[in-house]
C-alpha cells in the first residue's frame, strides 16, 4: 500500500501530521478560500505529492504561476521559514511536466473536433437559448445522416450554410429550421473564431494516454496554460467539461485502488456551474459521482464553497479550507456554510477560525481509512519542494523540446470533411460515409445532447489516433468515415 502523503501540520504545539491517504484520493476534494490566502500553493503541494507516488496530474494554470513545479525549489525566505516552523527538512525537487495550451503558444496544442465537443457543449459556448440549441442539435443530426465529418470551425460553418439554404427540404424529417436561429449560431461561431477557437478545433485530437504518463516513477504533471483562455470563461469551463467527459467515458472501471490513476484539478470551479442548465448540472453531478470508480480524483479549486452545488459539494471528501472574508451577507453565509460541512472539533469555533486564518493556514479534513471525514484541524500547509512562481521563457522552451509528446500535436491534419464535401456539391446530398471503427475521444455531452433533443441514435466521427506519428496521421486520412459520438452506457443504458 502506498504511504500516506504529508500535506499539513496542526497549528498547535503538537504539530500533528495531517495525512492524505492515496487510496482515498479518488474520493475527490475541495480547495477553497479568498484571494491571496494560499490556495495555489496548496494545489502545488498536493500535485507534488501525487506526482511523487507515480500519479499523473492535470491542472489549469489560470495565473501563470504553476509552471515553477517543473523546477527545484529555491531559497525562498517564506518557504524556509515555514519549514523551520514545522520542523521539516527541505528537499528541493522538480516534477516532470508537460505543458499544454489551447492556443498553442505556451505549450503543446490541445485540440478536439467539433463532433467530439457535441451540440450541447457548443450551445453553452455560443450562449444559445433552447430554440437555438435545438436547431444546432438538428444540424448535427443532419451531418450524421449525410455522413459529413465535423472536424473544425469551417466544417460547422459550411454545415450551417447548407442547412439554412436547404431548410425547406429538412422540415418534414427534422423539424422547423429557423433562419434566425441559424443566424444566432453563426454569430456565436464568429465570436468563438475571433477568440481563437479555430485553434482548438481540428486534428490531431488529444489522446487520453498522453495525460497519464510517468517518468522515472513520478507522475507527469500536465499544466494547461489558461491565463489567456480564462478571458473567454465559457470556452474555458466548457473545455474542462469536455476533458472530464473524456476521462469518464474512455477509462475502464478499476474499482478500489491503492492510489488514483489521474488527479484532475479544476481551478476557478465556479465557471463550471455558472448559468449551466439543470440538465447539464445533473450530468456533471453524475460524472463526479461515478468517475471515482475509474480511478480519477477531481479537486475543485474556488474562492467560495457556495460556488459548488450541494449535490457536488457533498461528494468532495478531502478538504482544505483557507480563510474567507465576511464582508457581506453572502460572505457570512459562505463562512457558515463552510463551517457546517466539516466534522466538528470541540476545540475549535470553526465559524470564527475561518475568518482568522493566516496566509498558508487552513482548516483541513481528509478521509480516514474507512472513508469517514476526520475531525477538522487548524493547520499550516507544508511548503512545496519545487519552485513557487513561473518559469522563464528559456525554461519553458526547454520543457517543450524535451517533452514526451514533442512534435506530436504541433502539425495540424486537415482531411476531407464537411467543408470539402459541401463545397464540391453545394446544395446536393453528400455521399454516405464509409463506416469505420471509432478510435478517438468520446463525449458524454454528445450523448446528453441526443437525450435532451429526443434522438435515440448517437454517433461521433472517427479520428486518427494521435498517438501515431504525424506522417502516419496524414496517410491514414480516410474520407467519409461515419460520425460517431460518445456513449455513456452506465448512465444511458448500454453502449452501442
Please sum up the structure shown.
This protein is α/β, with parallel strands linked by helices and 496 residues long. Helix content is 37%, strand content 13%.
Structure commentary:
This protein has 496 residues and is an alpha/beta fold. Helix content is 37%, strand content 13%. It is globular, with a radius of gyration of 24 Å.
Fraction of residues in helix: 25-40%
Give the amount of beta strand, in percent: 5-15%
Q: Averaged pLDDT, please?
A: 85
Which residues form runs of ≥5 with pLDDT under 50? 433-496
Query: Biggest sheet: strands, sense, closure?
Result: 12 strands, mixed
Q: Order of strands across the biggest sheet?
A: 2-1-14-13-12-3-11-10-4-9-5-6
Instruction: Compute the number of strand runs.
Output: 16
Number of helices: 18
Helix vs. strand class = alpha/beta
What shape does the CA trace take? globular
Radius of gyration: 24 Å
Termini gap: 37 Å
Features:
single chain; 496 residues; alpha/beta; 12-stranded mixed sheet; two-stranded antiparallel ribbon; 18 helices; 16 strands; 37% helix; 13% strand; globular
Amino acid at each position: 500500500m502506498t504511504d500516506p502523503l504529508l500535506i499539513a501540520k496542526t497549528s498547535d504545539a503538537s504539530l500533528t501530521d495531517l495525512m492524505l491517504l492515496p487510496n482515498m484520493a479518488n474520493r475527490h476534494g475541495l480547495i477553497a478560500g479568498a484571494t491571496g490566502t494560499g490556495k495555489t500553493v496548496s494545489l502545488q503541494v498536493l500535485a507534488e505529492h501525487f506526482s511523487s507516488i507515480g500519479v499523473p496530474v492535470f491542472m489549469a494554470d489560470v495565473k501563470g504561476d504553476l509552471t515553477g513545479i517543473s523546477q527545484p525549489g529555491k531559497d525562498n525566505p517564506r518557504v524556509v521559514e515555514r519549514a523551520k516552523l514545522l520542523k521539516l527538512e527541505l528537499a528541493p525537487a522538480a516534477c516532470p511536466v508537460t505543458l499544454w495550451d489551447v492556443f498553442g503558444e505556451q505549450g503543446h496544442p490541445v485540440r478536439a473536433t467539433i463532433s467530439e465537443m457535441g451540440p450541447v457543449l457548443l450551445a453553452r459556448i455560443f450562449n444559445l437559448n433552447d430554440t437555438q440549441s435545438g436547431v444546432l442539435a438538428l444540424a448535427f443530426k443532419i451531418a450524421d445522416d449525410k455522413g459529413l465529418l465535423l472536424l473544425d470551425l469551417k466544417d460547422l460553418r459550411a454545415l450551417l450554410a447548407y442547412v439554412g439554404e436547404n431548410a425547406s427540404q429538412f422540415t418534414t424529417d427534422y423539424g422547423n429550421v429557423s433562419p434566425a436561429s441559424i443566424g444566432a449560431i453563426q454569430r456565436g461561431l464568429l465570436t468563438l473564431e475571433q477568440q481563437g477557437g479555430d485553434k482548438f478545433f481540428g486534428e490531431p485530437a488529444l489522446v487520453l494516454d498522453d495525460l497519464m504518463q510517468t517518468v522515472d516513477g513520478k507522475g507527469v504533471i500536465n499544466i494547461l496554460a489558461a491565463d489567456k483562455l480564462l478571458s473567454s470563461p465559457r470556452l474555458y469551463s466548457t473545455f474542462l467539461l469536455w476533458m472530464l467527459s473524456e476521462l469518464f467515458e474512455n477509462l475502464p472501471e478499476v474499482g478500489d485502488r491503492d492510489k488514483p490513476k489521474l488527479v484532475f484539478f479544476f481551478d476557478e470551479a465556479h465557471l463550471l456551474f455558472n448559468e449551466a442548465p439543470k440538465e447539464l448540472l445533473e450530468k456533471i453531478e453524475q460524472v463526479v459521482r461515478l468517475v471515482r470508480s475509474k480511478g480519477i480524483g477531481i479537486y475543485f479549486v474556488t474562492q467560495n464553497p457556495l460556488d459548488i452545488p450541494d449535490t457536488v459539494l457533498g461528494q468532495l471528501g478531502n478538504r482544505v479550507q483557507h480563510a474567507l472574508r465576511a464582508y457581506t451577507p453572502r460572505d457570512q453565509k459562505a463562512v457558515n456554510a463552510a463551517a457546517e460541512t466539516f466534522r466538528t472539533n470541540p476545540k475549535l469555533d470553526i465559524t470564527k477560525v475561518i475568518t482568522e486564518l493566516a496566509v498558508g493556514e487552513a482548516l483541513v479534513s481528509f478521509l480516514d481509512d474507512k472513508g469517514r471525514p476526520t475531525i477538522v484541524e487548524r493547520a499550516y500547509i507544508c511548503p512545496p519542494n519545487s519552485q513557487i512562481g513561473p518559469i522563464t521563457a528559456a525554461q519553458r522552451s526547454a520543457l517543450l523540446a524535451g517533452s514526451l509528446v514533442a512534435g506530436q500535436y504541433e502539425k495540424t491534419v486537415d482531411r476531407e470533411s464537411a467543408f470539402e464535401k459541401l463545397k464540391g456539391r453545394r446544395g446536393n446530398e453528400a455521399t454516405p460515409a464509409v463506416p469505420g471503427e471509432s478510435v478517438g475521444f468520446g463525449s458524454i455531452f454528445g450523448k446528453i445532447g441526443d437525450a435532451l433533443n429526443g434522438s435515440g441514435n448517437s454517433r461521433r466521427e472517427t479520428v486518427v489516433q494521435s498517438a501515431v506519428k504525424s506522417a502516419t496521421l496524414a496517410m491514414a486520412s480516410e474520407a467519409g468515415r461515419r460520425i460517431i459520438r460518445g456513449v455513456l452506457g452506465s448512465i444511458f443504458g448500454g453502449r452501442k
